[in-house]
Amino acid sequence: MKKKTAIVGATLSLSILLGGCAPIDKGMEKADAFAQDKLSSIKVPFEWFKLDDKPKVNAVTTWHKVSAMELPTQDDSKAHLKTVDALEKLLNTELTNQETIEQFLANNKPTSSTFKGFSLQMSSNDVLGKVIREIYKKPYQTIQSVTVTGVGKTLEGKDKPVVTISINAINDSEKYLIYPLTMTLNERGQIDSVKQYKKPFNQLYTPSPLTEKSEWNESVHKEFKFVWKDFTSYPKTKDWESVKQGDFTSWLSTNGVEETNKSGRAVYEWFKNNEGDLTKGSITSYLHTDENASAITKYELTYPKKKSLENHHVTISYDRGLNKIVEIEKGTYTESVSTKGEEQ
């Protein structure tokens, strides 16, 4: 009797604890079912045990840093031209050899398996092969020569040498058909990538080659940095939204820039994207050219865009003979013709 009373008492206590004033006349089964129902209705606050998420970087308010190329005090591109001269001779020999061209056109193989100068290309996208087939698709049209038009370096791939060339085709017209290409070289001076950075065009003469006799100064980068410092010193302002494009047009004119309208648009867009601070941009490549004996070095500047976290580019044309910046354009001098980026 005492044992039964103890069990009933324990059940009764649990019923009172969970349900408040439960009816005393309920039997043990009813009391047990009642208790189970109450237990199932209890909600555990699992959010108390949830770990906090890691803090996320706010893409709208964070600038990413653009790696800068370390421009050498003494430019070595003139010495590099000796390697490029040998490469130019090889390309002229191979790409003007009619027998080799016919062999390439007859087989559905990439240029890397036909032309020695392109045997180490890193990609399967055969840009040069497409250019050759496009040239020879038209009757009486052949490759007449190859001209080296520029040498330089790019930060992409740890200061890789860059060479621009033009493939010069002739046909039954008075003008040459020019295909501009840009190539990167490995440490041995061998071609490992090619892209077409401009659409083909016609002109009466082949492009001016870059040679050791071109206007040159080994201190070109040192002199450029001295001039460029004046441009990036444009005063920072919190009220950058009130600055107009015309302000840059007149400012560029006082700094000797000739193409002020085009340059003004490019710098103004850069200024707006960087919210009034021109110091966020970094030089990421350069190319020495001598088109029409102009002695121009093109510097590519890369800057971040705040909202998209993408990189944007401007090309700075520096006159090596006059020691001044003559033009600043939106985009990069190595942009290719499709996307702009059809690369092999």
Keywords:
single chain; 344 residues; alpha+beta; Nuclear Transport Factor 2, Chain: A; nine-stranded antiparallel beta sheet; 8 helices; disordered N terminus; disordered C terminus
Give start-end ranges of low-pLDDT stretches: 1-24, 336-344
Oligomeric state: single chain
For the biggest sheet, the summary is:
9 strands, antiparallel
CATH class of the largest domain: Alpha Beta
What is the helix tally?
8
- Share of helix among residues? 25-40%
Count structural domains.
3
| Coarse morphology | elongated
Distance between the termini: 95 Å
CATH fold-level label of the largest domain: Nuclear Transport Factor 2, Chain: A
CATH architecture of the largest domain: Roll
SS strand fraction: 15-25%
Structural class: alpha+beta
Q: What string gives the helices and strands in order?
A: HHHHHEEEEEHHHEEEE
Radius of gyration: 35 Å
Mean pLDDT: 79
**What is the tally of beta strands?**
9
